[in-house]
Amino acid sequence: MKSGHAHINNIRRCCALLFVLLSFCISGYGQTTGDYRTVSSGNWNNDGIWERYNGSSWTTPTSYPGENTGTGNVDIRNDVTLNVNPSNSIGSLSLGA
Q1: pLDDT of residue 30
Q2: pTM of the shown model
């Protein structure tokens, strides 16, 4: 039979593991203000193929990623033709479904 101290240590280990796993989930799937994602195929400079995260929801932007400062992560989910050279930096670029 385990002592009460051993049970407390097991509970602490389980809580620590749960905290670590939740930290990875939250940081891996969170959006940040200034992130972009595609909603359809088209040319990079076509604002209509993008959505931009404004801190609480995804909205239609008034500029394409890299046109202005503050572009975060860019997630390309559709076919996009890079027909311009964005004048500002982009946080990261991911290609996926």
Answers
A1: 77
A2: 0.69
